[in-house]
Design goal:
about 350 residues; alpha/beta; Rossmann fold; 2 domains; six-stranded parallel sheet; globular; Lipopolysaccharide biosynthesis protein
């Protein structure tokens, strides 16, 4: 994408399983000069919890951190400012960088429902272009609609195989009702004698035990089934290669598609999902995607015996990280993503 060659980008993002690093890498490959900062002063479980519950309690550390960034970038003239999410970012920082770079285009992207993070709404006014993965938020707050993406490693991993180690795998963070739904799906799979692998991930034992005290869904979680070691992309891809289908369990209050959705389909694997809104996307095909009811889980045996239907190359491109970057920096894709 030659349009980013020699462009200077200030990029702040929440840390999300190293996808922010993949974005930096791709922007750099496209010729951009990128200054990247984590938008949180710290990523410890305690600091993330404080920022999420009451940012005011962490105000001193936030101000100190953002003044440090301002000192480090002083005198640099940026063409773009990209913020992904922005739980911690203070208004004074947004005002200052805009004042210092009056011709800089400010871009915001959010991959969580604003109903879950209402504190993000007040900062939207500082941005020239605002995107969300949540269709309802796009309509409610007059934002551009752009789903998430897959990394090329997942597409490159696609391979035809005659045999699989698993019929279905699940790899995901332990939150909301995922364990409850996951156990329902596993029970249904066991009844069909399907081979399954479930990997629930939590950030830390202490933090998880504390969350269990207040979250009724997590109270049912069997600690023996929780891992505190994060899988990297190579490990996840390996599980996809070995499975016919991958289970995705979205948050019950979320309609936006998880990043796992795009990775699974790009890898040429079938998807089982609790998100019924996937039927409104261009890549939906009943042979590739099975939508299940999280309250009344039913699996279709035939879904596991038919082959994955190869996806259209243009649709695959629109789902890619390159297309995501093109949308944020140059041309919105509202007419495409809203036409299905």
């Amino acid at each position: 994408m030659t349009g980013l060659k020699d462009k200077k980008i200030l990029f702040l993002s929440v840390s999300f399983f190293k996808y922010e690093q993949a974005i930096v890498k791709r922007l750099t490959e496209m010729g951009a000069q990128v200054d990247f900062y984590d938008e949180r002063p710290s990523n410890t479980n305690i600091s993330k919890g404080i920022i999420r519950l009451n940012k005011k309690l962490y105000q001193l550390q936030i101000r100190k951190y953002y003044h440090k960034i301002l000192n480090e970038i002083q005198g640099r003239n940026y063409d773009f400012f990209l913020l992904i999410k922005g739980e911690a970012i203070p208004a004074f920082f947004l005002e200052k960088i805009k004042k210092d770079n009056p011709r800089m285009e400010m871009i915001h992207y959010n991959f969580d429902p604003l109903s879950e993070y209402p504190g993000l709404i007040s900062n939207l006014k500082y941005f020239d272009k605002k995107f969300t993965f949540e269709r309802r938020d796009a309509q409610t707050f007059n934002l551009h609609f752009r789903p998430l993406f897959y990394l090329n490693e997942y597409k490159d991993s696609t391979q035809e195989t005659a045999s699989f180690d698993y019929d279905m795998v699940f790899v995901g963070s332990a939150h909301t009702d995922r364990y409850i739904v996951g156990e329902k799906v596993k029970s249904a799979a066991d009844n069909l004698r399907l081979r399954t692998f479930f990997y629930y991930y939590a950030m830390g034992k202490i933090a998880f035990r504390l969350k269990k005290l207040f979250d009724k869904s997590l109270k049912l979680f069997d600690l023996k089934k929780v891992s505190f070691e994060k899988l990297n992309h190579e490990q996840i891809i390996d599980y996809y290669k070995r499975s016919k289908a991958v289970l995705d369990i979205n948050k019950p209050f979320q309609n936006g598609l998880t990043i796992r959705t795009f990775e699974v389909l790009a890898a040429g694997r079938k998807l089982i999902t609790t998100n019924a809104d996937i039927k409104n996307y261009p890549f939906y095909h009943p042979d590739n995607i099975l939508v299940i009811d999280r309250e009344n889980v039913k699996l279709q045996p035939d879904f596991f015996t038919t082959k994955f239907i190869r996806m259209d190359d243009n649709v695959l491109y629109m789902m890619s990280l390159d297309s995501f970057i093109e949308c944020l920096f140059f041309r919105d894709q509202d007419s495409y993503w809203n036409s299905f």
